[in-house]
From TrEMBL:
The keyword Glycoprotein does not apply. Gene3D superfamilies: Endonuclease/exonuclease/phosphatase. GO terms for cellular component: cytoplasm. It comes from Nocardia flavorosea. This is Endonuclease/exonuclease/phosphatase domain-containing protein. InterPro entries: Endo/exonu/phosph_ase_sf, Endo/exonuclease/phosphatase, TDP2-like. Its cofactor is Mn(2+); Mg(2+).
Length: 285
C-alpha cells in the first residue's frame, strides 16, 4: 500500500482497557480489539495494558500488525503499563517522570511520554504527549502539580507555538478540577498558564460525556462503584494566543456498548478527528 504524500487529518484516540488481571480478560481482549478496530485511530494511547516480557505480542493481539510504539518505561509491580501506538513511524521519544511528591513518586509509572510522529506534511510532524497522573480521588494536589510539570516539560521540549501538540490520556480528573482547568486555560497554577483545547468540549459543548461511570457494568462491579460518573479521558490540542493549531472535526466515545455481550473496559474510549486549519490561528482570511 502506497503511503499518502499529503495528510490533512488525523484520528487520535485514548482508551484505558482495564488491567488484564481482572474481569475475564480473554473475552474482554476480543471486545477491546473490536472496539479499537471500529474507532479506526491513526494514533492511540492505551492504559493498563500488559507491559511484561511479551508486551509486543500482547499489543499485537489488540491492534494487529504494522503499529509503531512508544512505551512508558515503568510498570506496576504486576507488569501493567501504558503505550502510545501509531500508524506512522515515531521520531524522537522523550519521557518525563511525574514524581512531584512522595505519594506521586510511589507510582513511578505516572509519567508523560512525548513522541514525535513522522506523519506526512502538511500535518506532520505532530507531537503526541501521553499523560498519566495518579488516580486516587484524594490526590488532586498531586494531579495539579503533575499537570503543571507535564505542561512545563512539553513547553521546554516543543517551545514553538506553531508546532502541533496533542495531549491525551486517562487524566483521572473531571473537567472542573483545578488541573484540567489549568490545562484548558481557565486558571493558572504555580505561576504558569497554558491553553490546551479540549476536543470533546469543542464538539459537544454542554455534554458531560462521562467516560467512567457506574452505568458501565464493569464500574458498577468494580472498586470505585460508589462515585458518580465523570469524564476523565481526554484528547486536547495545544494552542497559543489565537486558538489551537488543529481544528476538531469530530469527537466520539467508543466502547460504550458491549461486543457480543462483553463489556470491553470500565472506561469508555475517546476518539477525535483533527485537521489542519485553512490558515494559521491569528491571521485574517
Amino acid at each position: 500500500m502506497t503511503s499518502p504524500t499529503s495528510v490533512q487529518q488525523i484520528r487520535v484516540a485514548t482508551f484505558n482497557v482495564l488491567t488484564p488481571l481482572l474481569a475475564d480478560w480473554p473475552a474482554r481482549r476480543r471486545a477491546v480489539a473490536a472496539q479499537i478496530e471500529q474507532a479506526r485511530p491513526d494514533i492511540i494511547a492505551l492504559q493498563e495494558v500488559d507491559a511484561g516480557p511479551d508486551r509486543d505480542e500482547a499489543l499485537h493481539d489488540l491492534l494487529g500488525p504494522g503499529w509503531h510504539t512508544a512505551w512508558h518505561s515503568h510498570t506496576t509491580p504486576d507488569g501493567i503499563g501504558l503505550v502510545l501506538a501509531g500508524r506512522w513511524p515515531f521520531g524522537e521519544i522523550r519521557e518525563h517522570g511525574l514524581g512531584v511528591t512522595d505519594r506521586a513518586a510511589a507510582a513511578p509509572w505516572s509519567a508523560v511520554v512525548l513522541a514525535e510522529v513522522l506523519a506526512p506534511a502538511p500535518l506532520g510532524p505532530v507531537f503526541i504527549a501521553h499523560h498519566k497522573p495518579v488516580f486516587p480521588f484524594d490526590h488532586e494536589h498531586e494531579r495539579e502539580l503533575q499537570a503543571v510539570e507535564a505542561a512545563r516539560f512539553i513547553r521546554s521540549e516543543i517551545p514553538s507555538p506553531d508546532e502541533h501538540v496533542i495531549l491525551l490520556g486517562d487524566f483521572d480528573a473531571a473537567p472542573d478540577s483545578a488541573g484540567i482547568r489549568f490545562l484548558t486555560g481557565r486558571q493558572s497554577l504555580s505561576g504558569m498558564s497554558v491553553c490546551y483545547h479540549d476536543v470533546w468540549e469543542a464538539v459537544h459543548p454542554g455534554d458531560p460525556g462521562h467516560t467512567f461511570t457506574p452505568q458501565n457494568p464493569l464500574v458498577a462491579a468494580g472498586d470505585m462503584f460508589s462515585a458518580p460518573g465523570r469524564r476523565i479521558d481526554y484528547v486536547m490540542v495545544r494552542g497559543a494566543s489565537f486558538g489551537p493549531t488543529l481544528q476538531a472535526r469530530s469527537a466520539e466515545r467508543f466502547g460504550v456498548a458491549g461486543v457480543d455481550g462483553v463489556q470491553a473496559s470500565d472506561h469508555y474510549g475517546v476518539v477525535a478527528e483533527l485537521e489542519v486549519p485553512p490558515r494559521r490561528p491569528g491571521t485574517w482570511s
